[in-house]
Please model this.
Amino acid sequence: MSKIVRNALIVDDEPDIRELLELTLGRMNIATQAAANIEEAKTLLQKFKFDLCLSDMRLPDGNGIDLVKHMQQDYPQIPVAMITAYGSMESAVDALKSGAFDFVSKPVNLQILRNLIQSALKLSESENDLDRRSRDQLLGNSEKMCAIRSSIAKLSRSQAPVYISGESGTGKELVARLIHQKGPRKDKAFIAVNCGAIPSELMESEFFGHKKGAFTGAISDKPGLFQAAEGGTLFLDEVAELPISMQVKLLRVIQEKAVRSVGEQQEVPVDVRILSATHKNLLQLVEKNEFRQDLYYRINVIELAIPSLRERKDDIEMLAEKILDQLIVNAKISTIKLSTDALNILKHYHFPGNVRELENILERAITLCEHNNITVNDLQLPKQAPLTPVSSSTPSIENQTQSDTQGLEKNQLKPIDQKVPLTDLLDKKEKEVITQALEKTQYNKTAAAKILGISFRQLRYRLKKLKIG
Model:
């Protein structure tokens, strides 16, 4: 007989449920202690060391959430999973917000229960690893970033759905990966999907899979994203882009912890943690009836707001140094220096594209700089405020000199739509100017570079960056 090395606390006032749980855990070589109410549970917690706790939501002397809060305060190292009545997702969400590790609904699906127990035990086994800081991956010593790293350590110990909010380029996917890597699912898959990149007609098949012959073109069985993430984490990036019909199906999967492939009759249990993100204001979309309120509260059990780069300007120097170090390795350059003036300019720049924009700026600067020294001009920062044209006429290609590709002067910009990112507008304008120069010179790049007032090397970089053939 295998040696029992784990101990679990079961809290439920129904003898049948206690017996079912004791049998299930016993077959997994887990010893159990049972309590019929909160007071008995507290007594057992004082006498024994437990690796996990399974508690009913409704108990004779209180609510299971009361026990969760007690254990969060006095026994935070013990994962607590709640057993909730069928259909009472609101109670399950409240338990997760209070610190419960996970939940399982009655009638208890034994496979889902086993998955939950295994995840909880992995959390206990890797407790020391979970407390590692994320400093080397999520850079910044500002107060906001220290708080984010602390939140990641806490969230990694839960299975609660997390909604990661923040502007584009702030690092939401990196945060999601860190939550996964520091949790009990770290040895399983992390599947990231951009919800806005999947055609609506293929979305159900992509998420849940399909059976052979389910529709025209389904020539074989295909697992979906949920099946691919089994035991791990599914990161729904830009979740606001999901159509309403898909939101309904996603809500059911989260509640039932089971999926049904297209063309299949039976649902199959899945063990997947859901993390989601979007740069949009999800609550505003709910108010406009563009995003389901019930799904919003399911994926937003815990919200983690990622600060913009302009909210943590003290981190810019550290980020720039780290990015340059990596770019130097990729470009096989011995060294590169960021001038003091260039660094000061970066510290005062608004960064609408956040960290991603900083990476792009420095990558461009390395290509354009001379003598491995990045100056202010090499940064080519765009204007930070909307500009109005001095003249309504369009300047000729001969007059569009180096300033075209270094931020674009005032008299070359038209009034812009505030909803369009400035960097996209600049790229579009730059592409137009370069294309005109190439056409004028019959695609003689040396001559085109001369017209534009830039070096051949600079033009070659821009052609590659803007994907101009």
Summary: The domain at 6-125 is CATH 3.40.50.2300 (Rossmann fold).
